Amino acid sequence: MSSIVQGHCDPAFTRVREAFEEHFAEGRELGAAVAVYAGDRKVVDLWGGVADRRTGRAWQADTPCFGFSCTKAVTAAAALLLAERGAYDVDGPVTDWWPEFGAAGKDGATAAHLLSHQAGLPAFARPVSAEEAADAPARAAELAAQEPEWTPGDGHGYHALTYGWLAGEIVRRHSGGRTVGAFVKDEFARGLDLWIGAPDEVIERAAKLSAGRRTGGGTDAPGTGSPGTGQDVLTRLAEAYTDPLSMMNRSLNNPHPGKGGYNNPVVLRAGWPAAGMTVTAPALAAFYRDLTAGRVLRPDTLREAVRPRVSGPDRTLLVRSSFGLGFMRPSQTFFTPRAGRESAFGHTGAGGSVGLGDPEAGLALAYLPNLMGDQASGDLRAYRLTQAAYASLS
Questions:
Q1: Which of 6, 5, 16, 7 is CA-nearest to residue 393?
Q2: Residue 125: burial class (beta carbons within 10 Å; 0-12, 13-18, 19+)
Q3: Which one-letter DSSP state was computed for residue 254?
Q4: Which PANTHER family did the record assign (predicted)?
Q5: 7: alpha, beta or left? (left if phi > 0; alpha if psi -120 to 50)
Q6: Contact between residue 172 and residue 136 where contact means Cβ atoms under 8 Å apart
Q7: Distance separating alpha carbons of residues 362 and 336, to the nearest angstrom
Q8: Total-model pTM
Q9: Residues 295-306: pLDDT tens digits?
Q10: 225 or 185, greater pLDDT
């Protein structure tokens, strides 16, 4: 094993180790970690490189990293657990438990619309600061009063950041006022190095994000570069991202994280429920391990949650996306090897991170880098690792 990469890899999963080492050898990584479970057996737990470019601090076995939109899957699981317990009806009106949400023509919205990017609220109507974003009830109230971009249910568009305060309000209103982070820790992540709202000691030892060479792409856009993604599509994405009036730009960049970007302690402490999780790769993989094994949600709940509710052109991302209730399904925003295209689910995050579960294959995987990849030119690191994991199973 190369001196850069450390940790454990089952001999049957050597392909994953080789792909991970190649990324470092090719200069595609600064620091990163990847973890894989086959059933309940942890078969890959690898890390390497530099956690903080400025100080040279090395990535350790327990180094947490900001997970961007990988957070959405965890938030969705929290909301779905409450539905499973009978707290609310996923397909019932939001106004049954959040009367104010019916303002401005949104009275027909269901919780399923909130969880599947159909709510018509992909962006705030005004600039929101990182400090304001820390007040989750206020941000939810602001979205409840806001006029939608489209009638809820009449199409879908990625709610890059607003998703968290919409889905998070489901959790807050049905869990005695708990934040998503508190509910997750209480209910299914107590023993995991996973925080949606990190304490200061976790922030101090977390990996620091570094910008890679970029030609466009979103602050929190899922990866869109893949085998078969045409250059015309990539150009269109880059143009939309730089247009301040585009839905993509407004969705991905507001609230703005402020000084230090997503290394800003204000953001890390707040734990935005759409993009605010700090986590280790083994912990994120363990979340998917438990989810696919029926230890977070009942198997029937999970099957319904990953059933595609929307598939097709995404009004925000301008490519084809597919979502269940909070979980991505294989599409142009969640590239999955052929072996997992019918059964895999999960969520990508900005810069290249991913969490994935596949109940049929018995696979759970997480990958977290701190060198931000460039979605608009094609960041395939997570895809290569996932492909290697599936190949190892066979």
A1: 16
A2: middle
A3: S
A4: BETA-LACTAMASE-RELATED, BETA-LACTAMASE-RELATED DOMAIN-CONTAINING PROTEIN
A5: left
A6: yes
A7: 15
A8: 0.94
A9: 999 999 999 999
A10: 185
Amino acid at 222: P
Give the up-direction half-sphere exposure of residue 200: CA atoms within 13 A in the CB hemisphere.
Answer: 0
Domains belonging to the chain, first-starting first, are: 5-393 (3.40.710.10)
Distances (CA, A) of 100 to 89, 134, 212, 215, 272: 17, 21, 42, 41, 22
Token pair listed for 85: 């317990």
Helix then strand then coil, in percent of the chain rounded to 5, is 40, 15, 45
How many whole angstroms separate alpha carbon 142 and alpha carbon 144? 5
Over its C-alpha atoms, the chain yields an Rg (Å, rounded) of 19
**CB under 8 Å to 151, separation ≥6 — which residues?**
105, 108, 120
The pLDDT score that the predictor gives to residue 319 is: 94
Q: Strand pairing partners for 6?
A: 47
d(CA 109, CA 118): 9
CB 348 within 8 A of CB 321: no
Name the strand (E) or helix (H) holding 87: none
The set of residues, in sequence order, having a beta carbon less than 8 Å from that of 100 and lying 6+ positions away, is: 141, 144, 145
The pLDDT confidence band at residue 243, using thresholds 50, 70 and 90, is confident
CA–CA dist 357, 231 (Å, integer): 30
First and final CA of the chain: distance in angstroms? 23
Tokens 């402020």 belong to residue? 258
Q: Report the distance separating Cα 90 and Cα 106, nearest Å.
A: 16
Please, where are the H alpha helices in 243-292?
A: 247-252, 265-270, 281-292
Question: Can you tell me the distance from the alpha carbon of 385 to that of 145, in angstroms, rounded to the nearest whole number?
Answer: 43
List C-alpha distances in Å: 319 to 30, 132, 244, 387. 29, 31, 19, 22
